Amino acid sequence: MVDDFDSSLIKTGAERLALLGKHATALMQGYVGEQVDETAFSDTALKKLLNARILWRPDEQSGLKLSHRVRDLIAEMLSDARRRHVNADVGETLELLRNLVMTWREAQQRGDYLLAEQQQLRLTQEMDDLNGRFADAIDSLWQRLNSDFGFVSSLNDKIRENERAQKQITRLLDGLDLIDFDELILLVGGSGPLRKLLVSQLQNQISAHYSNLREVQTRLVQLMARFRHQQSRNLLVNGMVAFLREHPRFRPGNYTQRTEVPSLFNQATSLIPAAAAALDRDRDADQLAELIQHLPRREIPLELAEAALPAEWHQDETVAARQQQLKEDVEGFYLQVVDSGQPISALEYLQQSGLGWDAEIWLYQVIAEHQGLPAREQSQFQLWQDESPSSQWNQVLLIHDVHLQLAPAGAIA
Fold first, then answer.
1. How far apart are CA 157 and CA 282, in angstroms?
2. The CA-based dihedral angle spanning residues 211, 212, 214, 220, taken in that order and rounded to the nearest 10 degrees
3. Which of 20, 41, 142, 325 is the most buried (most CB within 10 A)?
4. What gap in Å lies between CA 84 and CA 75, rounded to an integer?
5. Interstrand relation of 65-66 and 344-345 (parallel, antiparallel or unpaired)
6. How far apart are CA 399 and CA 48, in angstroms?
């Protein structure tokens, strides 16, 4: 005797097996290649395949791919040991990826580009299978939240379902933690396609998995809190029902008519009415003026008045004083250059003079002072910078020191 649930299950399974058989050629081409050709399906068929989780799309920019369970089913039927996954061990998959990358690099060094292309295709398929397993595991968590977790009757069953879901989340997080992007970056080296596959795309997909797991955990907490709230209300109602059974003649009293209200009902705090002078009432203007005249005046000492000034004013005065002191110290450096007539290093002068300025601020002020001089006075000094490029990939120059000296007489003329 087949019940309604089994008949519905048989019907759904038959429909999905029929989908596999109807689009077998296009699906097998996707199994052999990198992705499935969307043009091989009609809009209705494509929607059915996506709803049946036979096909899936990792993100909006990617094409359609076979789900990892369909890949494993085809690999099992074809005895394709290379594509058959015995378990969902992330560490084993990462080790397989390392071996494939090493094989690809060796093929590139030998000039065997056909083998290198095959290994790159296998890498793409393994990455799709890895992301597909994580996506299916997270989807099963959502299904558990909407079925087993949401329809249990007791708090203990709810707690056990919560523990199961939390353990599955922990296992998924442990698997995601095994993916070391620093190692992958060193592994792929300078290969652009592999870096895009194993670093940039994988990083975006792993970030999406982390976001989905956070949503699952948030949903778990919300459902647990909601269930506890419902349980507390049920306990209150059940307790009231039991009390009424033991005391069938009980009638609630009118507590508003009592002089002594129980503390359970006396929870409202007293209200403090707000009051303000009605300035728009002309008949009270004389009384308000008289009250204002009799208000006592407070004499604030000068020291307290200065202390009451905004803190920004004191800060502005302090900053202005430090800037003035820095300007005077730099002018002393220029006077030293004039007196000596020899080139002087700005950092050496800073150290010998015992000034407490930061080296970067000091050099910036020395350069700014030179640029702020009039054109005639600026031509009397020669300033050159000890600098070097920050990297061979850009033209940014780092200034290490500044040297200043008087220009020769001929140069001034």
1. 73
2. 170
3. 41
4. 5
5. unpaired
6. 65
Distance CA 191, CA 123 (A): 13
Instruction: Give the CA distances from residue 66 to residues 62, 84, 172, in Å, rounded to whole numbers and listed in that order.
Output: 12, 14, 21
Can you say how many angstroms the Cα of residue 60 is from the centroid of all Cα atoms in its chain?
A: 20
Give the long-range contacts of residues 44-51, CB within 8 A, separation 24 or more: 45/19, 48/19, 49/19, 49/23
Rounded distance between C-alpha atoms, residue 199 and residue 193, angstroms: 10
Average pLDDT, 10 consecutive residues per value, the chain (413 residues): 62 77 78 73 79 72 71 68 51 82 84 82 80 80 71 71 80 82 82 82 84 84 79 83 87 72 70 76 81 73 50 62 84 85 86 84 85 82 83 76 77 46
pLDDT value for 58: 67
| Cα distance between residue 180 and residue 95, in whole Å | 12
| Residue 248 to residue 238: CA distance in whole angstroms | 15
Radius of gyration of the chain (CA): 40
Largest CA distance in the chain: 119
| pTM assigned to the model | 0.43
Phi then psi dihedrals of residue 188, to 5 deg: -80, -20
Task: Report whether 213 contacts 138 (CB < 8 A).
Answer: yes
CA 258 from centroid of its chain's CA atoms = 58
Structure tokens at 352: 């010998």
User: Is 378:370 a contact under the CB 8 Å cutoff?
Assistant: yes
Q: Return the residue matching tokens 């005895």.
A: 79
Instruction: Output the CA–CA distances (angstroms, integers) from residue 319 to 57, 305, 325, 328, in the order listed.
Output: 58, 21, 10, 14
Instruction: Output the CA torsion sign for 18, 24, 26, 30.
Output: positive
CA distance 392 to 383: 26
Neighbours of 27 (CB within 10 A): 22
Instruction: Tell me the two tokens of residue 52.
Output: 């049946």
N- to C-terminal Cα separation, the chain = 114
Residue 399: φ, ψ to 5°:
-90, 120
Q: How far apart are CA 127 and CA 93, in angstroms?
A: 9
d(CA 103, CA 116): 8
